[in-house]
Structure formats: structure tokens, C-alpha cells
Amino acid sequence: MAPTSSGLRVLITGVSDRLGADLARSLQDDPAVGDIYGIDVRDPRRPLGRTEFVHADTRHSVIAKLVRELRIQVVVHCAVVTHQLESVRAMHETNVIGTMNVLAACAGETSPVEHVVVKSSTAIYGVDPTGPSFMTEAMAGGRRRRGPLQVDMLEMEQLAQDFALRNPAISVTVLRFADVVDKHSDSPLARYLSLPVVPTALGFDPRVQFLHGADAVEAMRRAVFGRQRGVFNVAAPGILALSQAIRLAGGRPVPMLSGLFGPLQRLALTAIVGVPLTPRLLSLITHGQAVDCSLLLHEFGWQPAYDNRTVMAEFAEPAEDVIEGGEVQPVQERQLESYLLRRRLRGHQVHTL
Amino acid sequence: MSPRSRRTDAEEELRHELGLLYSQVALELRSRSAADSNGGGDHSDGALLRPDFGRAAADLTALALRGSPILGSLLDFFAHQRALATRGPDAELDEFGFDREWTESLLPLFRWAYTSYWHVQTSGVEHVPAEGRALLVSNHAGVLPWDGAMIKTAIFAEHPRPRHARALVANFFFGTPYLGRLLRRTGQTVGHPDDIRRLLEQDELVLVFPEGVKGTGKPFTERYRLRRFGRGGFVQSAIRHRAPIIPVSVVGSEEIYPMLGDSSLLARLTGMPYFPITPTFPWLGPLGLLPLPSNWSIRFHPAVRTDELDPELADDQNVVMEVADRVRETIQHGVWDGLRERRRAFL
């Protein structure tokens, strides 16, 4: 059955995350999409509808088998950590080793994959107050100071770029998302902005940009069908000063000497309010960042629907934890191998190439 | 533009009359109290009259204050600043962080510096186009970019259709607290080709100082001798994005901080591109940052029609350097003319 239906066969990695799950649910309403498969190391926290969920770790090389047996045409690689909440090492494993495996699985003569979408982050540019006011896609890397997240993104995109060069038949879309901040997001920045009293750096009020989760999902959905080759910045239109963003989010900015954001303050913030002051967050709140999204507008003919003001105003509203689309799927396949075996037993036609 | 900056005859008259009234009331009050202490007058009468006189005096003081152009504008200025500070998230910033409303609220201060402090004489402002993109190119001097502020003020004070010039500032400043924020809020941005492109594509008026820190950091003995114009990057941008170049010559900015020397050690320690030593800085501390009141002139020259060139010529280094040299010559001659016409540097 499964690979016999006529529509597009899509594999989403990191489907237990909010963006991956939302993408799966937005794709399954589309008649052009046939089977949707989702993999992740963790159980899905949100209902996935008709998406088939398989436990699989992108850090292992089993994905090649999955891709070939299920005749996957489009791979959306969402299993990329774009904010640093866990340890640097774990983040690096997921981002770099995971991406390496996923891309390796898509490569090769026998690969049925036609298109790959990779989630990335504007953290790749780093933060440089003396650099251009808007980062265009070509400005990644450079001489800026590097946090672990930026290093990860640089390495990960290097892999994607190499992959695109070696596999000219497969189109690759890399989407560099600005920091996703909405009611459902959990990141250092989202935690920081939801504080009632927000410490800011004295003498600085940088320009900041965010992205609504719904727009991130929409960008990926469009990339699945549009198959635009290349790298694209995705950020909400408009610009806010950090102090404006904090006020819109319902907080009160309290300037502190920026020298005070030392190790002690970081520990205190993390311990008291649970906001890890990562290098990324620290540089965002002192110097800020803005990216140029004209390439996205030009190639996709689309720009995010939520502007930065709306993103923040919505973030200020109380979060209602209603999950649409029914209950979480009861049956989950624990193991990739057993999943594939069970499919064969159920009489699915299995492509072994 | 505001009627306050130039006192009208009517205002002058009103002030005079208020002053007269005020002195009459003061006289009256003094004679009353003198009469009281003599014990000659009717006490109840005095008690009735005194509060009225007191109130009248207070009212008249307030009136006189408001009638005084300087105090009145100051009161207005602070009231306006307070109103603007309460905008919070409603303040409209453009994508570079430019707060138009707030910047315009500061204009009275700059206008005062323009007319009363530096006595700026401006000519050729008609060469600045009322709309559409253009690149203003000026000589640069004086440690702190007051020349940029005065060029911007000149356009606001003299142009029939004033508009904001967006200056490109040395990158170094944007990482510094307060100053970086101030520069962005008043419409300045980083000197990067991509920033010029964005501004010109939005049909803005862009102001550049091709000498950069080589211009502001030069010693007093070399004043009014223009430095090298970089590698002509501004010409490339103008040709590529079809913007005319309007050369601007500024005289007076060299004397505001006569730079006697430059401490490379202190520059290295503070991370600044140069560390100026002037007769007042760093000896007087922050007070040494006060610019001296020299006499200024600004002249805008006719446009160099880089907008009519083929945009592909932007990659022709010969053409670029030729135009850059021509612009530099125009500015240098404008500076010499301005110096010749200026009677003295101070007072």
C-alpha cells in the first residue's frame, strides 16, 4: 500500500518537535501529498494525523534504509537544534552528525530522493554590530565571533552545500529561520522575553527580528512543493528595537551594565528564572541582528504573514494549550527494523534496491 | 523653520511690554510693603491686596518666561521629549533603526548650533534634489562628526523641501554603548556597500565621508588638506545604483577640536581608531568634548551625473578613480574658496 499511493512521499525528521509536527499536519491536508513519514528519537508530543511515526535517530546510519524502502521523494530535515537549551555536545551531535547521516542517506545512485529541505538558523551569521545592517545569504561565516550554535550552523550548511554540489540531480533548499518566538516555543530567547522584568544591556537597544512558528512551517511547506534551490533567510517583516519587543511582550526592560552579564549573573538568571544566557542570546540582546529577506520574496513570491509587531503582541497573550487535531497517536513503532519488518508482514510492497 | 528661532518684531514687542509690566508690579509691591512696615496703611486693605499681587506676579513671571523665546523653546522641547519618551513600543522605527519623529524633535538644538553657535553660511542647497536618491560626498574633520550633523541641519534649515540625509558612519561606533544607539536612532548606519545599496534603492539621500577616520583623525597642522578618498567605493555605489553625486565642502569643522596629537597607546587601550589630544581633551574630561565655536560655511556643489553613466562602469576602476578624483578636487576647491571668503576662524 504505502508507497503505492500516487502523491508525493515525504519524510520529516525531527517530527516530534513543534515545527516538524505542524509541518506534517499541514502537509497531510494537501491532496498532492501521498504518504508522510515522520522520524524522531522522542515520542511525538502532538498528534500527527495520518503521518506514520517511526522511532529513529538521525545520528545513526539507518535512515538510508528507510528512505529507500519507503521510496521517499522529499526529505524535510527538521531535526536541527537552532537554540541552545541542552548541552553543546548534544546539540553538535544532532546538528552536524545527524545532518551528515540524513544527507548521506539521501545521496547515492539508488536514492529515490528528489528534493531536500534543511532547517537552519540566522545564528549562522553571528552578531557583529560593525558589520552590514542586514545580512544577506552570502554573508555567512566571516570574521565574527563564534558561539557553539553558529559553529554548528556553519558546519551543517557546509554539509548541505557539499551535498548539493555532489548530487546535482537533487535540489536542496536551506531555510535560515530567524529566532522562532511564539506561544509554543521554548528557547532561551522565548524564556527571556516572557520574563516580567527583563534585564537589558545599558546603553544598547538593538534591532531585533523574530519569526512566528506558523510562518516557519509555511516556508517549509512552500519549499516542499516549490523546490527552490539555494539558501534563504526567513524572518518576520519589519524591525523592532529590543525594548519595544519586550514591552509588546508584556515585560518591562531594566537596563543593567553590560559588564554585569558576567558568569555570576548568568548563573543567577539560569537558576532563578530558568533563562540560560547563551552566547547567542547575549549577543542578540546587546547588538541584535537583522537579515535581508528579499531573496525569499523574489524566489518564493511569499513573505511571512506575521510581522514582528504581531509576533510579539501574540506572544504576550496567555498561552492556551489546546492541541488541535485529535489525540496523540497511540501506536508507535519503537524500532525502525521492526517497523519495516511489520510493514512487510502486512503485505506492503517493499522496494529493495 | 520654527518662528521661535527668528524672533519676530511682534514677539520682541510683547517681551518688552511684559518686562515693563513686570517691573511696574514689582515696584508697586515694594512700595506696598514699605507702606506696611511704616504702619501707615490700612492693614485689612493690605491683606486683601497682597495675595492678588502675589498671584499677579507669579502669572506675569510665567508669561514672561513663555514670552522669552529661549526659555519658551526649552520648555516646549522638554515637554515634547517627555511625550516622545512615553511612546514605548508605538515608536515607528525604519529598518535601520531610524526614529524620524524623535530625530526631528532634536532639530531645535541643532538649529541653534547651526545659527547661533557656528554661524553656518550655506550656499548651493538647491543642488540637493528634493526627491529621489542621491549621494552627498563631503570632506570630514573634527574628531566627532559634527560636520555630518550640520550638513543634515543645513538641508533642514535652508532647503524648500527638507529631507533627512542618512550618513554612513565608521563601523567602530556601532559597537559602543549609547553612541551606537544614538547614531542609529538619528538615521545613521554602518559604512558598508550593502547599506548604501539598500538606502539608495529606497531613494534616500545618503551622506558619505570618503576620508573616513583618516579625515577626522588628522592633526591640526594639516587642516583643510583632504585625505585620500579611499578606493572610490562610494563612486562604485553611485554608478551601480544610478545616483548622482553631490560634492559638499565644509569649512569650520577643522577648528572645533584642534588636534595637537594622537596617542596611539591610548587608542590601542580604548579600542578607538585614534585617540585625539586637543587643548581641552582629555585634560578637561567630558568638558573637553565641547566643540569650539568656529565660523562655518557649507557649500553644496552641482551634481556629478554618475546616475547617467552605464551601471556596468562601476566595475571599471579607471572610471571610478577618475570620478572620485574629480569629486575630491571639487570639494578641495570649495574648501579653499570657503576659507578665502571666511573673515576669521573664530568670533
Task: State the secondary-structure class of chain A.
Answer: alpha/beta
Specify the structural class of chain B: alpha/beta
- Whole-angstrom Rg of chain B: 26 Å
Taking the alpha carbons of the first and last residues of chain B, their distance comes to 25 Å
Shape of chain A: globular
Describe this structure in words.
The complex is a heterodimer of chains A (about 350) and B (about 350). With about 350 residues, chain A is an alpha/beta fold. Chain A has helices at about 20-30, 65-70, 90-105, 150-165, 190-195, 215-225, 240-250, 265-275, 280-285, 295-300, 310-315, 335-345, and strands at about 10-15, 35-40, 50-55, 75, 115-120, 170-175, 195-200, 205-210, 230-235, 240, 250-255. Chain A is built from 12 helices and 11 strands. With about 350 residues, chain B is of the alpha/beta class. Helices cover about 45% and strands about 10% of the residues of chain B. Chain B has helices at about 10-40, 45-65, 70-85, 100-115, 145-160, 180-185, 195-200, 215, 235-240, 265-270, 315-340; strands at about 120-125, 135-140, 165-170, 190, 205-210, 245-250, 260, 275, 295-300. In chain B, strand 3, helix 6 (about 180-185) and strand 4 form a beta-alpha-beta unit. Classes of the chains: A alpha/beta (about 350), B alpha/beta (about 350). The interface between A and B is medium-sized, with 28 and 24 residues.
Element layout with pairings:
The complex is a heterodimer of chains A (353) and B (347).
Chain A: E1 8-13, H1 18-28, E2 33-40, E3 52-55, H2 63-69, E4 74-77, H3 88-106, E5 115-121, H4 148-166, E6 171-177, H5 188-193, E7 197-201, E8 207-208, H6 213-226, E9 230-234, E10 240-241, H7 242-248, E11 252-256, H8 263-273, H9 279-287, H10 294-300, H11 308-316, H12 336-345
Parallel strand pairs in A: 1-2, 1-4, 2-3, 4-5, 5-6, 6-9, 7-11
Antiparallel strand pairs in A: 8-10
Helix pairs in contact in A: 1-6, 2-3, 3-4
Chain B: H1 9-38, H2 43-67, H3 69-85, H4 100-117, E1 121-123, E2 134-138, H5 146-158, E3 165-169, H6 179-185, E4 189-190, H7 193-201, E5 205-208, H8 213-216, H9 233-240, E6 245-251, E7 261-262, H10 264-270, E8 276-277, E9 297-300, H11 317-341
Parallel strand pairs in B: 1-9, 2-5, 2-6, 3-4, 3-5
Antiparallel strand pairs in B: 6-9, 7-8
Helix pairs in contact in B: 1-2, 3-4, 4-5, 7-9, 9-11
